[in-house]
Amino acid sequence: MTQHLFSRARARTRWCLVSVCLLFSGLAQAAGLASGDGLERLPDDTRPLHYLISAQPNKDNTGFTAKASLRFEVLKPTAQVVVNSRDLKIGKAQLKNGAVAKVSGDPARHRTLFSFDKPLPLGQYELNVEYTGLITENIEGVFRVDQQSPDGKRQQMLFTHLCCIGTARKFAPIWDQPDLKAVFELELIIPAGLDAVANTPVAKRETLPTGESKLRFEPSPRMSSYLLFFAVGKFDKVETQLGATKLGVYTQPGKGEQGRFALQATADSVKLYNDYFGIDYPLPKLDSIAFPGAGGFGAMENWGAIFYFEPYLLVNPQLATQRDRQQVYVVVAHEVAHQWFGNLVTMKWWDDLWLNEGFATWMASKATDRYKPEWNVWRMDAESREQAMSQDARDFTHPIVRPVRTYEEAELSFDSITYEKGNQVIRMIEAYVGEDAFRTAIRAHVKKHAYGNAVTEDLWKELEMASPFPVAAIARDFTVQEGVPLIDVISSKCVGGKTTVAVRQGRFGLDAKSKQPKEWRVPVTATVVGTNKIARQVVRGAAPSEISLEGCGPVKVNLGEAGYYRTRYDAASFAQLEKNFARLPAQDQLGLLNDGYNLAEGGFTEFPGYLNLALKVPANADPVLWLHLTRALGTLDKLYRGRAEHEQLRAFARWKLSGALRELGWVERDGESANASIARAEVVELLASLRDSATQKEALRRFQGATTDPALISGGMHQAIVNAVGMAADAKTLDDVLARAAKSTDSAQSQIYLMAAARVQDPVLATRMLDLTLTDAVPAPLVGNMVREIAQSHPALTFDYVTSKYETLAPRLESFTRTSVAQQVAGNSVDVTLLPRLEKFVAEKVGDAGRETLNRARSTMTFSDEVRRERLPEVDGWLREHASAWKVQQ
Ligand SMILES: [Zn+2]
Q1: Do the Cβ atoms of 727 and 688 come closer than 8 Å?
Q2: What single-letter DSSP state applies at residue 97?
Q3: Which pTM does this prediction carry?
Q4: What confidence score (pLDDT) does residue 30 get?
Q5: Cβ neighbours around 605 below 10 Å, total
Q6: What does the DSSP 8-state code read for residue 515?
Q7: Is the sign of the CA dihedral 876, 878, 884, 889 positive or negative?
Q8: Burial class (CB in 10 A: 0-12, 13-18, 19+), 768
Q9: Pairwise CA distance, residues 300 & 332, whole Å
Q10: Choosing from 310, 335, 682, 685, which is the catalytic residue?
Q11: Among 28-42, 545-559, 613-627, which is the least confidently predicted range?
């Protein structure tokens, strides 16, 4: 899925405290269980072969009736066939040979047991089961959504989300495990006038005497249960043909054209992957289906029928920012990559989830870089890389590959480590062995395990065969142990036109546990700035090793930031880099800034070194540097909350960002890069959040004036301006924003207004927004996002609200958010006195299911507190020393 995480990481609220982003990023699919229960494998005495499931929704779409014909094989004689089921009422169950099964349930373990008088001998069987299930509004199992079409008519649509853990079993009694693959055949009986889409094309369409339609879909390939999908409703569709594959985008009526951009992205990706994997996309069609609204993740890669929340699939030229476009492109490339990596070859168990997600994330960046080189996707990826590194430097991190024993662990596996560290480690390994050798290994791996399952070691075996280097050892170091290596540059000396750099390997960690020494074989790259000669060396352990470089001058380690490690320089080497900062490529400038901020925050270096670099970022810098600065300054702004020196920091931040805004202007320019547009939007939003009155006034002027003069807001600035207005809103302006949300017939537009209103900084109005989340004015899938957004500016207030109204709020949240919302909200706070109350709340209302997110919140809040006490005084000193610069120029 994307991003879930994947898209979540990119779409996350900007400048949240980095660690809080991590809490968000752990918000998985929103699809799993609210339970700390053990995650059990089914008994291995049977396995599924083929499902024929015929389902009919009730008239009011609150439930469905179904018949399933389960073909399975008995591998060890047994009198009891155990499958997964959840919230299903199972009626009659009978083998085709006539034997009637006694049906019993084990709801706590999500199981149904079909018992027979005598053990079934080895062989194949067909069990016919009648049952009913639920249709709800939550994005789990089968769910419905009310949709208003452009002509004002309301209609209901049905969708499924059967990923990933514990959810397919809400649709049918099923062997719900990724390694228990089978063929699925689906039949749907739906009201006249509606259409349906599923994994495979429609094989047969009939009109029943009742006037209803009966649609039978072609059998799927052998696949995992979590990939099953269907949707029912009225759709617009745009389509195209790519070789043997029909590509389509389904939207709610009136929005088909908004799917063109994603359709092209899908075609680009399929074309590239057909070649890259050496196996053509195996289904006759690949559809993308837009869900009208937003939820806790981005998209889900169901085979042949990818589910997307609208913001991740549709591009409305009036509303879409350049970031939206990039996000759509990257998310599409990610989901399409899963059609091979994930769907064709699937991880054997959730331990190896990264094989799906890390690869899809990496592949998406690769595809995007191929077709949209001007986006500099690897530079943009630095944001997500930072997020992964931040989590990985904390006590709540985990190895990329780790045992998954509980539902909560499985849910939390959909996090930055799995997606983004996975992505970065693959990128580093590809750079180390070379693009061709790496592709050879991937092709062999996919070919060998097609329609089956694999574990991480299977991939390393192929890599080792394809590469002349001992790559498996490096790969294992980075996947089976957690943490971030630190490369220390101890000294660099120039003799006779050659530079010798002494380095050693340590560990970058932000708490006691993460600082414990560990060894990695780190493939290090280094160069003398300006020479284009790159030295490569594997560095391991605390003993110094030497790297020899051509030429003399400042030395930059980790070129292009393609290696997963942080670099700390000795004072002399750093001074040289600082002096030559302007000569470095943007990616390396970005690397120095990212390492600089994080090393200072962790106490490995001091803040003035970083701030001196930040001071050197010119107004016309590469936009990625401004993205970094908005993030860093936004984080510092939150850490400064309640400190006497807060205004001092804000004066600096406003001065620095205003310079960039003067350079960028308020309106997009012809021929400018997409990234410039993204940076402009983020600079405006942060300035508004820092209460820069000029920015707040200008945003409001454009917002109000655009009603009569649309040229005041260019497409890419629409959301930033609405957000800026939302932050500064008084009661009257908030009314205006909310009225626009209510009036809009376009769910994407309505959502932009609602989320902007959620940013309001006035505490009284923030409470009003919280009240709104309990009403139908906020669609259920958006409630979690809104509460989290409000908590960004008002953590304590939101925490009080969430905990006091929990009984009313909880039913409006997906299960994972339900058990983690208080932790996520509190994690935004820099006030550790909130912790005991949070602990009490989790103990009383959530229990074990909230344990891991509680650990994360505790760790985050404790660390923020430590940074405030121990690190921020360095920033205070630097601000005092340099204040004349912005005081004079203001
Ligand atoms: Zn994914």
Answers
A1: yes
A2: T
A3: 0.89
A4: 35
A5: 20
A6: H
A7: negative
A8: middle
A9: 10
A10: 335
A11: 28-42
pLDDT tens-digit map of 136-178 = 988 889 999 987 666 667 788 999 999 878 899 999 999 999 9
CA of 204 to the centre of ligand 1 (A): 31
Cα torsion 800, 805, 809, 815: sign: positive
| DSSP tally for the chain: helices H, then strands E | 32, 28
Kindly give, in sequence order, each residue whose CB lies less than 8 Å from that of residue 178, ignoring residues fewer than 6 positions away.
224, 225, 226, 346, 347, 348, 349, 350, 453
Nearest residue to 542 via CA among 526, 563, 520, 568? 520
257 in catalytic set: no
pLDDT greater than 60 at residue 4 = no
Q: Find how far residue 578's CA is from the centre of its chain.
A: 34
DSSP bridge pairs for 485? 507
How far apart are the CA of 335 and the centre of ligand 1, in A? 6
Give me the chain's average pLDDT, please.
92
Count other Cβ atoms within 10 Å, centred on residue 448. 13
Which pair of structure tokens corresponds to residue 351?
């331990």
Find the 4 Cα to ligand 1 centroid distance in Å: 7
- Report whether pLDDT(473) > 80: yes
User: Could you report the per-residue pLDDT of 426-443, keeping only the tens digit for each?
Assistant: 999 999 999 999 999 999
User: Collapsing DSSP states into helix, strand and coil, what is residue 5?
Assistant: helix
Contact between residue 126 and residue 71 where contact means Cβ atoms under 8 Å apart: yes
The backbone torsions φ and ψ at residue 199, rounded to the nearest 5 degrees and listed phi first, read -60, -35
- The structure tokens 């610069």 sit at 885
**Ligand 1 mean position, distance from CA 360 (Å):** 6
